[in-house]
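Good day; I would like, with your permission, to put a structural problem before you. The record follows directly beneath this note:
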Amino acid sequence: MTTLKRFARIAVAPALVLLVGSLSGALALEEKPKPAVKTAREEIKAFCANIADSARDQRYLLQREELAKLQAQVDDRIAQLEKRKSEYEGWLKQRNDFLKKAEGGLVDIYKGMKPDAAAGQLNLIDPNLASAIIMKLSPRQSSQILAEMDPKKAAALTEIISAAGSRNMQRNPS
């Protein structure tokens, strides 16, 4: 019986190994989850979710570069405008200086004229300029010149002078 037992052990052992192996293999196959079948929509969703952060970062980078370009353009434009502003201020100063010199000389010319000659000249020039000249003259000279002028023109100049006087009173209420 020893041989028979020995034979049984030798023959049964490999059979047991095969049996256990096949059972464990079968169990292993059953335990593996079956791969889920993804739809195209789910694949697209997963792809988009995977690249969303990098796409957002890239978009922010492009926007920042665009803002930097725009800021540079704005800075250049501001520099150009500042340059032009200083040029215009220079021209305005020169113009105002010229007008002050010319105005003073022009008023002196009318101061030296006879009232009838000054009235004839003031009838022909712009009413605003004429009224400015009359305002710079003494009241005695102004009244003599206005008396010699065309009555309608004198009335128009008087209105301008009156309006200018009331504007000056509103600015400087002293």
Q: What stands out?
A: Residues 53-101 form one domain. The mean pLDDT is 79. The two ends are 144 Å apart (CA to CA). The chain has six helices and no strands.
